[in-house]
Amino acid sequence: MATTPVDLVNPFREGLKTDRATAPCQLVIFGASGDLTNRKLLPAIYNLAQADLLPPSFSVIGFARDSLDENTFRDKLKNAVATSGDVRVKDDAVLARLAERTHYVGGDFHDPASYDRLKAAIEQYGKQYATGGNLIFYIATPASLFGDIVEKLHDAGLAAADSADRFVRIIVEKPFGRDLASAKLLNAELLKYLSEDQVYRIDHYLGKETVQNILVLRFANGIFEPIWNRRYVDHVQIIVAESLGIEGRGNFYEETGVVRDIIQNHALQLLSLVAMEPPTTFDAREFRDEKIRVIEAIRPISADVSSSCVRGQYGAGFVDGEDVPAYRDEQNVAKDSITPTYGAFRFFVDNWRWADVPFYVRSGKRLPKRLTEIAIQFKRAPHLPFRKSQVDELSGNVLALRIQPDEGITLRFGAKVPGPSMRIRSVNMDFGYGETFGREDASPYERLILDCMKGDQTLFDRSDGVEAAWALIDPVLSAWQSDRNAAFPNYAAGAWGPAESDALIERDGRQWRRL
Ligand code: BG6
Fold this sequence. Notes:
Blueprint: E1 25-30, H1 35-50, E2 58-64, H2 70-83, H3 92-100, E3 102-106, H4 112-128, E4 135-139, H5 146-155, E5 168-172, H6 180-193, E6 199-201, H7 209-219, E7 233-241, H8 250-275, H9 284-297, E8 309-312, E9 314-315, E10 317-319, E11 322-324, E12 342-348, E13 358-364, E14 371-378, E15 391-393, E16 398-404, E17 408-416, E18 424-432, H10 433-437, H11 444-454, H12 463-482, E19 491-492, H13 499-506
Parallel strand pairs: 1-2, 1-4, 2-3, 4-5, 5-6, 7-13, 9-19, 15-18
Antiparallel strand pairs: 7-14, 8-12, 10-11, 12-13, 14-16, 16-17, 17-18
The structure holds 6-O-phosphono-beta-D-glucopyranose.
6-O-phosphono-beta-D-glucopyranose binds at residues 242, 261, 372.
């Protein structure tokens, strides 16, 4: 299928004096036999190769515990490309060239001898592919291993400081820690050997086209910004809904739950992009300063957590046309688990722009559909010069940013129903990415890996950013952890969360959007 090549140039760099180019480099993936590498990273690297966006001097080294031989890892690459829904154009010649440059080192993450072998491989392939000593380590392992890996890389002489003619960068996956204390510790461990501008904390939501478009919508148009504040906005609703369950990841999810998996990172990223002040430029420092200011301005959650936060866990039910088990009956989940699979929150951003405007955020597994959306609900017109009988149905104006799927933007407003009498109804004005641009989006990982190769940290988290998000969320985690009397399950798979979640917003005289 012919598709338009995907333009992966970071739009935020445009207008700056120079755009950065990708330098020669080696990409070393820790956790190379894991699920993320297979589902996301290998297809993303192939897509970059296919779009001719990788530097000519480039190679991949996979590192993991499994004692695979090189050909088996290359077969994994080929299989990942063959089966991934993210791959847009299958080109055997590109894949063969990439496979030739893909190598594998098996070893223990804690064993210094393994790092010596890795170092020997890096030196050998570095010469072979003329990668100039530039290194990117993608650490796609559980967070508990990050600190040790970086220390061992340092001890092996692989995590040196950047110099004028070579760089060393580390990409670390989320969740970054499991609470404020562990995130601080992790930051300290990484920053003991690396400087902040060598660390790329990934949140793949920031790599999504529609998420970046929040900024374009707000800051490239003159008409939205004047009304983007407490005078005109009644409230904001953010939903990250998934119909999937935990997909065999019981061990991971038991440790994580919806708050650590989605709210602390993806959902708060969306909130900060909606609420941030316009930066003067999209320089990584300024952009991240503004984003972090929003998280720091969110009112701390009061001791009475239940007044602004609701937790839920799904029971058995019916989703996507099939019967599905309760969370507690999933593999590797405790029968009395209190891990939340649903969370609903009411936040306030205490600053001049947003004082007293609630931001309602909800996310859950096993909801009726997969959908991420941000809805800006505007205040109603101050006075309606129409009779009640003339108004069939008129909700306040809503600007809905559809992050996924069916990516687009909808503006809802009142219109006259055609006919001899005055009747009014709400209608939608719609923009769809697919129809307008007619091409498939690059996966977020492509954009983010490429940005790392360019040394552009704009779309990555900074240490103070992750810590601010944990500081906000920590009291909720502790309160829920210490109160084991959650009446779980409290929503059926296939429902929009527990009744308490409806009560949370209805107490304020508002309702969740019907989606
Ligand atoms: C990941 C979570 O970060 O995001 C998963 O660990 C979740 O549990 C996924 O399913 C959702 O990502 P997306 O891009 O499909 O919305």
